[in-house]
Amino acid sequence: MVNEAWKSGVLLAILASFTFSIMNALVKEASATLPASEIGFFRGVIGSVLVYLLMLREKVSFSNQDVPMLLIRGLLGALYLVCYFFSIAHIPLADASILAHMSPVFIILISAVFLRERVATPIWLLLGVVIIGAALIVRPFSYSTYSMYAAIGLLGAFFAGGAHVAIRQLSARHHAYEIVFYFLSIAALVSIPLMWTDFVWPTSEREWICLITLGVVSLLGQLFLTKAFTHESAAIVAVTRYIGIVFNVAWGWLFWSESIGTLTIAGGCLIVAACILLSRLKGA
C-alpha cells in the first residue's frame, strides 16, 4: 500500500510543476509585447509583496544570520529568472523547459567544487550523457541566434543550480518565506537596469492580467514545491518535477503551434533519463 505522505509529496510536486508551467505560458504570452527583464521585474515585485504579507500574517521575522548567503541566493535566483524568461520569450517552451531542468547537473558540479562533495564515477558518466543531450538542443556546432537563446537558457540552469545549493545551506536555519522574499525582491532589483532602456508601460488589460496572474501563480508554485519537499525526499520530488516538461510541451503546442524537432526530442530524452538517474543516485 502506498504511503499517504509519499502520495502527498508526489502530488504536491506534480501540482507545483503544473503551476510553474502556467507561469511559463503567461511569460510566453506577455513577452509578445513586453521585454523579458520587465516581466521578471513585475514578477519579483508582485511576489515580494505577497510573500511579505504572508510573513506578517504568520509572524515570520527577518533573521540577522547568513545575510551574505541570503543575498547570494537571491542574486543567483534573480539571474536564473532573467535568463529563463529571456529563453522562453525566444525559443519554444519545450526547449526552454528541458534546458532549465538541467539544474540538478549544476547542483552536483557546484557541490563538488565548492562543498568538496565526492562525485562517484557513475555520476560523472551520466553528466557526460547530459552534456551530449544539451548539445543536441543548443546546437553549438551550427551557431545561430536560436542557439544563442538556448545557451542563455542553459546559463539560467547554472544559476538555478547555484541557487539550490545556497538554499540547501540556508533551509536549516531560515524560514522558506524569508528565503523566497530575498529571491523575489533581488530579482526585481536586478531587472531594473536590464529594462531601463526599453521599458514598456503595460497599457492593455491583457498585459496587466498576465503580469498579475504570473506573480500570483509563480508564488503558489514556490509554496507547493516547498511543501512537497517537506513531505518527500528531494530525489523523488526532483524526479517528479520532470513532468513539467510535458505540461510545457502541451502549452506550446496548444497556444503557439510549436513543434518539437528530432534533435530536441533526442536531447530531451537523454537529459531527462540521465537527470532521473542522477537524482536517484544522489538520493540513495
UniProtKB/TrEMBL annotation:
<keyword id="KW-1133">Transmembrane helix</keyword>
<feature type="transmembrane region" description="Helical">
    <location>
        <begin position="208"/>
        <end position="226"/>
    </location>
</feature>
<keyword id="KW-0472">Membrane</keyword>
<feature type="transmembrane region" description="Helical">
    <location>
        <begin position="70"/>
        <end position="92"/>
    </location>
</feature>
<feature type="domain" description="EamA">
    <location>
        <begin position="151"/>
        <end position="279"/>
    </location>
</feature>
<dbReference type="Pfam" id="PF00892">
    <property type="entry name" value="EamA"/>
</dbReference>
<keyword id="KW-0812">Transmembrane</keyword>
<feature type="transmembrane region" description="Helical">
    <location>
        <begin position="122"/>
        <end position="142"/>
    </location>
</feature>
<feature type="transmembrane region" description="Helical">
    <location>
        <begin position="179"/>
        <end position="196"/>
    </location>
</feature>
<dbReference type="InterPro" id="IPR037185">
    <property type="entry name" value="EmrE-like"/>
</dbReference>
<feature type="transmembrane region" description="Helical">
    <location>
        <begin position="233"/>
        <end position="254"/>
    </location>
</feature>
<feature type="transmembrane region" description="Helical">
    <location>
        <begin position="148"/>
        <end position="167"/>
    </location>
</feature>
<feature type="transmembrane region" description="Helical">
    <location>
        <begin position="260"/>
        <end position="279"/>
    </location>
</feature>
<dbReference type="InterPro" id="IPR000620">
    <property type="entry name" value="EamA_dom"/>
</dbReference>
<protein>
    <submittedName>
        <fullName>DMT family transporter</fullName>
    </submittedName>
</protein>
<feature type="transmembrane region" description="Helical">
    <location>
        <begin position="41"/>
        <end position="58"/>
    </location>
</feature>
<feature type="domain" description="EamA">
    <location>
        <begin position="8"/>
        <end position="138"/>
    </location>
</feature>
<feature type="transmembrane region" description="Helical">
    <location>
        <begin position="98"/>
        <end position="115"/>
    </location>
</feature>
